[in-house]
Amino acid sequence: MSRDSRFADSYMLRRLLLIWIGPAMIALAAWGFEFHLNQQAQHQLRVKSIGELATLRARIEAVMSRNLSLVQGLTTIVISNPDITQQQFAALGEVIFQQPSQLNNIALARDMVISHVYPMQGNEKALGLNYRTHPQQRAAAQRVVETGKMVVAGPLNLVQGGVGFVARAPIYTRDAENDQRRYFWGLIASVIDAEKVYQESGLFDTTQQLQVALRGKDSLGESGEAFFGDGELFDQDAAMLSIALPSGSWQLAARPIGGWETVHANLWQWRFVAAAIAAGIMIGMLLWLQLQHKGREIEQRLARAQATLMAALEQMPSGFILADAKTGEIRVANNAALMIRDLREEDIVGQRYDKLQQNWPAYHPDGSFFLTSELPLARALGPGERARNGEVGLRWGEPDERGVGATAAAVRDV
Predict the structure, then answer these.
(1) What is the pLDDT of residues 171-213, one digit of tens each?
(2) Which of 318, 314, 355 shows the shortest CA–CA distance to 332?
(3) What pLDDT is attached to residue 375?
(4) β-strand 151-157 against 163-174: which pairing, if any?
């Protein structure tokens, strides 16, 4: 295989490597940066979602706290007036219901039997309900007695329609004769409209951007049933927060409707920039390889031309010497030139022309020495004259005395 063929194969190999490996490396780097951007976008989405979830939790807690505070306030009144009548209770209920709330009704259960109700209209059948014997409400009521704290049960389907939470709190009154002694008076219970709680807290608005779910029925936290949204959300990669209640908690879960997988907002701009950079690098490297290839071709052509010229010079019957105009150093001497003085190439090539006169003097036809400045080569290199057919004598006075015709001229860059 020729040298030119090997170079062509090497050039093509480098070009193929650049076309395939170059873009692959750029694509790998772009993918890594894109992955970083997407991770950053997902982190920002998670932070934003958790922030929205925390805001929602605060709103739910605020709505529930406002309603439960109204119920708890009535407990204080009953403690101070354990013999409260239905008329007095109704008057208090009317004042309470004038406050912003999601309460549906309020009831007192003296000795665990409902004895007072407000509003009475629509709730008459509740009077006389015994929590100790009622199959659906006995367990929840007993939990209030055992814990001594307010417990939020439900949500439950209401008889009058809709869904509500039932807040029950124990009432303990003090012995009139012994202030240190307390006895169990009964319960206060209130139904809180669940749909109104959801609406007031902004839960329905949040579901436009997030999948939201609530669990912890009967204030049982993560062990309670889901009662709002898709309960499967708790088994997925959702952000979760606890909602504090007087006794127990609910658990709130959320994640974006499209999931956590997201892309950076400026991803397509980055891809365009990366593609433009990759294309620019590829074009630049291809041009660089092309220039290298052309430069190599020029070098090869010059080398071939120089070899051809040297071959032609070696075939010339006349002597030929080429010297550097700046340094006067002999660069080329053909065989005919060497034979004139029986020299070897290393005797003169690389030497200054003026040293030739010192080592191998030349003579005028009258036998006098040539001054260095008079030599045809010196006249061509110095003043730039064109010396034609100047007669130069060699080995004057010796048996092999002979003369040559010398012509010298300057070769200038075009």
Answers:
(1) 998 876 666 678 899 999 999 999 999 999 999 888 777 889 9
(2) 314
(3) 75
(4) antiparallel
Alpha carbon distance 241, 192 (integer Å):
22
Cα 344 from Cα 362, distance rounded (Å): 18
* Cβ 129 vs Cβ 113: under 8 Å: yes
Q: In angstroms, rounded to a whole number, what is the distance separating the alpha carbons of residues 159 and 29?
A: 65
DSSP class of 238: -
CA distance 360 to 352: 13
Amino acid identity for residue 243 in this structure: I
Q: What is the spatial distance between Cα 298 and Cα 293, in angstroms, rounded to a whole number? A: 9
Full 3-state SS string of 90-155: HHHHHHHHCCCCCEEEEEEEECCEEEEEECCCCCHHHCCCECCCCCCCHHHHHHHHHHCCCEEEEE
- In this predicted structure, what is the pLDDT of residue 253? 94
Report how many helices (DSSP H) and strands (DSSP E) the chain contains, helices first. Answer: 10, 14
Q: How much is the average pLDDT of 250-275? A: 70
Cis amide prior to 155 (ω within 30 degrees): yes
32: its two tokens: 């890594």
Q: What region, left, alpha or beta, does residue 186 occupy, with left being phi > 0 and alpha being psi -120 to 50 degrees? A: left
Q: Give Dmax over CA atoms of the chain in angstroms.
A: 164
Which token pair is 239? 């952000």
Question: Which of 342 and 169 is assigned the larger pLDDT?
Answer: 169
Backbone angles phi, psi at 404, to 5 degrees: -135, 155
CA distance 131 to 128: 9
Tokens 């409209």 correspond to what residue?
193
Q: What is the pLDDT of residues 352-375, one digit of tens each?
A: 877 766 666 777 777 777 777 777
